[in-house]
Amino acid sequence: MISLKASSSTTISTHKFSSQQSFNSLPSKSALPQTHVPNHSPLKQFSVSPIRAQQIDARDRSAVVCDNRISEREALKVKEWEIGMLQDEVAASQGIKIRRRPPTGPPLHYMGPFESRLQNEGSTPRDILEEIVWYKDLEVSQMKESKPLSMLKNMLDDAPPPIDFVGALKAAYLRTGVPGLIAEVKKASPSRGVLREDFDPVEVAKAYEKGGAACLSVLTDVKFFQGCFENLEAIRSSGVQCPLLCKEFVVDPWQIFYARVKGADAILLIAAVLSDLEIEYMIKICKSLGLAALVEVHDEREMDRVLEIDGIELVGINNRDLGTFKVDIGNTKKLLEGERGERLRQKGIIAVGESGLFNPSDIAYVQEAGVRAVLVGESLVKQKDPTAGITGLFGKNISS
């Protein structure tokens, strides 16, 4: 599970995070490549062809740029900025509170439909998840410069073949009678700091597999969780047979391709960050690459959203409140009872319990609520012997 609280810059600690520290090391967004809007995107209608001047009637809800000699590049910047504002509006309409990037002022001389919505926009992250997402947006932009999508597509043929992540969870549940375990390989978290000083990702992964884990989750975020894609790659090439979930903060489809190249069999998509259209689009990409998608929700509104999206096979219920950071495993029961739980079962979606699971009674509680898999990290990785930790978590040996 991802534990969302506070962080410092490179070294993980439990101190309050400093937004200024997080972004000083990165270039400004304007220094990064411009966002590409794909042909199939509904936002394509907002793209512009090269022009020397842009002076569209404000009644058409388009920007008015007063300088008749505005350059092509400046005109495109105006439209790109408006597209970003529109994306934020779409997200807000779906109850998404996480802003995808720091608010920026409009281009010079901007007059248009978003002019009245620029006041009272704070320029610091509202919480740790938003800080992570802002940093990730810049980080991914930089990575795409050195490894463009065309390069990743050429590398797919050399990636290890995907392993059936969903099938492994189903098989584990049938074999053991308890929720299939996704054991998390995690060195640190923003709220807890370093969880295991003698952290060896491959050794931890092998211990989990020996203990009966159906699948593994591997943290790949460097700054906030001290993970990396090299850990994912090392585990995949070590002989471990468990399917691997890439535990990353996905803000761009490019990350899905990168995860597949590095050996991932599944990837995390967070409903608190991504719009419905983005989730639907990314699930299609996952299916085309042979990846499973674990769509994570935190509350009733997010659950209602994902139940309307076709193609979802796994829904993770995070028991951590993103506002207060408190953990309540009763959240799982709340989201799975009544009509929501019935719809989930009718659609054949596997519910995955996340956060706050430490002992057999916790496992029994969420299983009774309707989960068929659990994702557990902190309570296992901190154990001197993670294999024995799995037995303790379930109250029995699930390895055979």
Commentary on this structure:
The chain is globular, with a radius of gyration of 22 Å. The longest helix is centred in the N-terminal third of the chain and has 22 residues. It is built from 15 helices and twelve strands. Helix 7 links the parallel strand 6 and strand 7. It is 38% helix and 12% strand. It is α/β, with parallel strands linked by helices and 400 residues long. The chain has an eight-stranded parallel β-barrel with strand order 3-6-7-8-9-10-11-12, surrounded by eight helices.
Break the fold down into its secondary structure elements and pairings.
Blueprint: H1 19-24, E1 64-65, H2 72-93, E2 110-111, H3 128-146, H4 149-155, H5 165-176, E3 180-185, E4 188-189, E5 193-194, H6 201-211, E6 215-219, H7 229-236, E7 244-247, H8 254-261, E8 266-270, H9 276-289, E9 292-297, H10 300-307, E10 314-318, H11 330-336, H12 338-346, E11 350-354, H13 360-369, E12 373-376, H14 378-381, H15 386-394
Parallel strand pairs: 3-6, 3-12, 6-7, 7-8, 8-9, 9-10, 10-11, 11-12
Antiparallel strand pairs: 1-2, 4-5
Keywords:
400 residues, alpha/beta, eight-stranded parallel barrel, 38% helix
How would you summarize this macromolecular structure in one to three sentences?
The chain is α/β, with parallel strands linked by helices. It is about 40% helix and about 10% strand.
Judged by helices, strands and strand pairing, the structural class is alpha/beta
Sketch the major β-sheet. Answer: 8 strands, parallel, barrel
**Counted beta strands:** 12
Q: Write down the overall geometry.
A: globular
Helix content: 25-40%
Mean pLDDT, to the nearest integer, reads 82
Distance between the termini: 25 Å
How are helices and strands ordered from N to C?
A: HEHEHHHEEEHEHEHEHEHEHHEHEHH
Q: Cα-atom Rg, whole angstroms?
A: 22 Å
Strand order of the largest sheet: 3-6-7-8-9-10-11-12
Strand % is 5-15%
How many helices? The count is 15
Low-confidence stretches: 1-69
